[in-house]
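User: I'm curious whether this sequence folds into something compact or stays loose and floppy. Could you predict its structure so I can see for myself?
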Amino acid sequence: MYAHLDHASSRGHAEDDPGLRACVAFRQLAGQAGVCLTLWDTQADADRFASQQAELAALAGQVYEVTDIGEGRAASQAPAYARLMYFDGPRAPEQAAAEDLAGQRRIWPAIRGLSGLVRTYVLRGPDLGCVVITLATSVETLDAIARAVMATELMPGEDPALLPGPDRIEIHHVTGYHMPRLLPSAAPGGPHERTLT
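Assistant: Here's the prediction. I'll summarize afterward.
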């Protein structure tokens, strides 16, 4: 699955496009900055949408591969808030691998049981830069997630030099949440989807 992330609040998102899996619109707290996330079946779908959007404005969005999806206890609810964490590229392959491993083995187990967590997406760019998007039902949930992550200890083999943390963090209201099709289950070569049972 692929994602298009667009830092412009006025763009459309083609809800009737057969390749569209989900669309989430954000507006930054205490500001008017807007972000639109669309999720697509294939890179071709995402690239086509990106080119259409680029024709509408000078600043085009970026296409990412969705490398991980986590579903929380509130997955059946519509999110109200989101945290976007940006890990700017270019990044070395070993750094990207360390970040992915930390997310899967240390961070996700620490947050997956928190009430109010709707879903997380890990988006990896061509330069191995990354955006981690966390959707939640409240700001309090986002705060609880941050505390839980900060309370974790590095696992054996984790190198802190490869895990400097995000370059910037944004908190947003979720202003639109449209999921016309179910997200795919984990499959070889595809994103991991973790659903709490």
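Summary: Residues 93-111 form the longest helix (19 residues). Confidence is low (pLDDT under 50) at residues 185-197.
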